[in-house]
Amino acid sequence: MPGESLSAAMEAARALEQKKIASVFTNLGENVKDRAEALQVTEHYLEVLRSIHESGLLAEISVKLTQLGLDLSADFCFENLERILAREKKDSIVWVDMEASSYVDATLDIYKRALGKFPNVGICLQAYLYRTQKDVEELLPLRPSIRLVKGAYKEPPAIAYPKKLDVDENYFSLAKTMMAAQMAGRCPRTAFGTHDVKLIRRLAEHAAQNGFPKSNFEVQMLYGIQREEQDRLAREGYRSAVLVAYGTYWYPWFVRRLAERPANLWFMAKNLFAS
Ligand SMILES: Cc1cc2nc3c(=O)[nH]c(=O)nc-3n(C[C@H](O)[C@H](O)[C@H](O)COP(=O)(O)OP(=O)(O)OC[C@H]3O[C@@H](n4cnc5c(N)ncnc54)[C@H](O)[C@@H]3O)c2cc1C
Questions:
Q1: CA of residue 221 to ligand 1 center, whole Å
Q2: Whose CA is nearest to atom 47 of ligand 1?
Q3: Taking the model in full, what pTM does it have?
Q4: Which of 126, 133, 131 is nearest to 150 (CA)?
Q5: Can you count the helices (H) and strands (E) in the chain?
Q6: Which tens digits make up the pLDDT trace of 59-110?
Q7: How many Cα atoms are found within 13 Å in the side-chain-facing hemisphere of 123?
């Protein structure tokens, strides 16, 4: 994180933009417990969009539905998302994060409803889930924008690939489907949310062999991770974006992520010493 405040995130975005790297802002938080808090988050994102538009920054936002009140009511959450979508420009995407598996159905339901009214809403899908192939097939007729990630939560082997190798293969296969869909005009934006350099190169090779343009090949990474790869992608004409998280909720968020997946600590330590 560049800092706790939105202004710190915007400053980081300005520096990234110098290197032709776009930003995606996300205010850390999840599972809000009351409506007032969800409304506050919604107002905050409306303010963020206003700041982005005023500053002309190359930036989008990514939201978590449980932060917009999904645990309280799906309709209430949808209304909050709708207000945010109504404020975003038509050529920018509002990304919807995917949370733990118990939220996937509810998230997809809200996403599909939103997509019916706002073509500029994007969804994050997780390659570790067996169901994702089918979810992609069901979404494609609706012209979704998709950010594909491996998945960050601890899920049981009954619903998610337990082995990294299988997750990576499923990622590759889903990514190929997404690229083909984008070329066929069925998927306005596809983004690969990964730091896996080997996988990115394999995907870029597939893209080159199949006429998928570099200018549509988008990789999104977390702020400060694999910086060299972020820079290289931007330099070489790929679409490079960085998820810039901010907010005061960073400590509980970090502890929760660690509890779910202790490997995150190893990642963090490696990147800390590499930078
Ligand atoms: C832009 C973006 C949005 C995301 N949104 C979601 C979401 O909505 N839902 C969801 O479930 N998950 C989300 N994730 C997290 C994602 O699911 C993975 O948990 C995370 O990206 C690690 O997987 P990887 O693809 O980077 O590959 P891995 O094979 O796990 O990692 C590849 C290499 O990248 C480095 N690395 C990976 N992660 C980290 C880290 N956290 N810190 C330091 N180094 C790291 C390590 O060097 C590692 O060897 C998002 C990730 C990104 C980049």
A1: 7
A2: 267
A3: 0.93
A4: 126
A5: 10, 8
A6: 999 999 999 999 999 999 999 999 999 999 999 999 999 999 999 999 999 9
A7: 28
